[in-house]
Amino acid sequence: MLNDKTLVMLNDLKIDNQSGARELINKAINVIKSQLNTITNESIEISEIIVELSRRIIDCRPSMAPLINTIGYLIGSDLKSLTKSSILQKIEQFFQDKNDREKRLEDAFQNFITSNYKNDLNIMLISYSSTIINLLTKLKGNNIELYILESRPLLEGHKTAEELSSTFKTHLNIDMAMGKFINKMDLVLVGIDSVLKDGAIINKIGTYPLAVLAHERGVDTYAMGDSFKYNLKSHYDLKVDIEPKPIEEVYNKQTSSKNLMIHNYYFDITPPNYITGIISELGILRPQKFVKEVIKILPIKWFQSFLNNNQ
């Protein structure tokens, strides 16, 4: 049985609409630690409770591939061999490996910028990506000008603009102003929530029209994220839902009209032909090539075992 503290932390993970993947993964790991702290007998069989906890964590953020892959990294495919100490050891190893992936991604990004853009550089961003913000900040000293879309309905672009404006000249624009400024851009950079098995990416809503517009105007669009962004639900041909969100965030008036239907989604899916490349710790690869390389290195069979245990 999950303890009360764990249940509260799970709810916080579910309702957190502001944090990026990095912060949410840390929250998920803290959820696991909270439950492990209640286990005092090292010899107790914990596979059942860990599978239940893993299911609850994944259900909190069903479209977030890095969260699913993190769970897989920690529990593996041999669920019966799980112990408290083995999971805690895997958590420690996870952060070491994560730091290595981030360093290789940083090297790939810096090499990409310095090799392809020698002069002034105009970049358009959408929403909030801690990965993009951290790596751009490390290019301090380069003559970079940023055009940031505010990203409705939650306006995460405001936070992005506030953080990056201390380093670069920054323009904050409403989403539908993307067409006004796209001709000035040298590059569009977007984050990644998930990469699907066909190379399409799930990211904050507005990414799809931005990538289409950039493609139409001859501006390259690159998505940034590591191999843990690969979506295992998609890999096993499971439905990847884009969940509707509270309509009050976009329309809070009282109406009696039966013909007025309000829609609010946080994410959309961008087909791979509109993504020039994915920048990751594997280098800069076309979306379909990224998927092929990820399948070679990412432990994916655990998820099939996990699904079997949840049927």
Q: Can you lay out the helices and strands and say which pair or pack?
A:
Blueprint: H1 4-15, H2 21-36, H3 47-60, H4 65-75, H5 84-116, E1 121-126, H6 130-137, E2 144-149, H7 156-164, E3 169-173, H8 178-181, E4 187-190, E5 194-195, E6 201-204, H9 207-216, E7 221-224, H10 232-235, E8 267-270, E9 277-280, E10 283-285, H11 287-297, H12 301-308
Parallel strand pairs: 1-2, 1-4, 2-3, 4-7, 7-9
Antiparallel strand pairs: 5-6, 6-8, 9-10
Helix pairs in contact: 1-2, 1-3, 2-3, 3-4, 4-5
What does this structure look like?
With 311 residues, this protein is an alpha/beta fold. The chain has two domains: 4-99 and 299-308, translation initiation factor eif-2b, domain 1 (Four Helix Bundle (Hemerythrin (Met), subunit A), Up-down Bundle); 107-297, Translation initiation factor eif-2b, domain 2 (Rossmann fold). Helix content is 45%, strand content 14%. The protein has twelve helices and ten strands. It has helices spanning 4-15, 21-36, 47-60, 65-75, 84-116, 130-137, 156-164, 178-181, 207-216, 232-235, 287-297, 301-308, and strands at residues 121-126, 144-149, 169-173, 187-190, 194-195, 201-204, 221-224, 267-270, 277-280, 283-285. The strands form two sheets. The protein has a seven-stranded mixed β-sheet. A three-stranded antiparallel β-sheet has the order 5-6-8, with helices on one face. α1 (4-15) runs parallel beside α3 and α2 packs antiparallel against α3 (47-60). The radius of gyration is 20 Å and the shape is globular.
